[in-house]
Amino acid sequence: MVGQGRAVWLAFLAAVLWGLWWMPVRGLEALGLPGLWASLVMNAGALVVAGSWMYLRRLPVHVSARSAFGAFLLGFAVTSFSTGLVLSDVVRVILLFYLAPAWSKIIESVFLGHRWGWGATLALLMSFSGAFLILGGGLSTEGLRLGDALALLAGMSWSAGAALIFVDGRGDALPLSAITAGAAMVAALPFLWLGPATTVAPGVIAAGLGAGALYVLPILVMTLWSARRLAPAALSFLLTAEIVSGVGSGVLFLNEPFSGMQVVGAALIILGAMVEIIQALTRSHELRQ
Question: Taking the complete model, does pTM exceed 0.85, yes or no?
Fold first, then answer.
């Protein structure tokens, strides 16, 4: 597939930046903008810049209803993920979200007709085993927090959205990014209504909008450009590079607990990702022969 190699590298770079998503969220929170508001304002900044650029450049909008709905699901996933970061540990939320590759493999097999091979089984076993260890090696939901549940929901929504965009194969990255950012804003409203009212200085709002324009929008464009060219599971597994940057930064800078059992769980999820990535690149190489 044309551009697949570039898509792999862009998805990897986007993953590293997704892993550091908590930094601007927590930074804006320290300035007085609560975490949920921080996510909404950053997505607003991304939407305003994307929309303004398309208007000023008179860019045509080529987005089908299927791709638009896929982008909407991705936006819902972004908000669920961001809310999870506020309500639970960064490490737990990131790792639970990255059961997304497992959901993507199931979608590919059941709905897209992709062949289910030994690699898919191995990748899924590693992903689920890793999540089991991250949650403490028990099946009880007693320790499951709302943020953890939102992380799981975000992974499912992300997988479904990526599948719709890949199957459609149409839609430019910039308008899809605008739809994703807009959907993320809409999805954040119910969470904001549940929280207390807040007053924020205009300067802090401006900082959040700037973070959305300079940080969030480029990540969305890279991710969605890759989503059109990579199968959902391959994209989701590539994005597990977020685990390295997100978990590493969370442990180093936030001093969050990370036991030996969780180290093993993270390693299993990453190894599962490597199995799928190697298979995806091998299939691509064979198609070019």
Answer: no
Residue 220: strand, helix, or coil: helix
| 3-state helix, strand and coil shares in percent for the chain, rounded to the nearest 5 | 80, 0, 20
Triad 9, 13, 14: Cα angle to 5°: 115
Nearest-5° Cα angle at 223, 183 to 219: 80
Instruction: Name, in order, each residue with C-beta under 8 angstroms of 163's C-beta and a sequence gap of 6 or more.
Output: 70, 104, 107, 108, 111, 112, 232
Contact 32, 201 (CB under 8 A): yes
Q: Which has the closest alpha carbon to 96: 164, 148, 26?
A: 148
- The band of 136, judged by pLDDT with boundaries at 50, 70 and 90, is low
* Spatial separation of the C-alpha atoms in residues 134 and 99, rounded to whole Å: 12
pLDDT digits (tens, 9 = 90+) for 259-268: 778 778 778 8
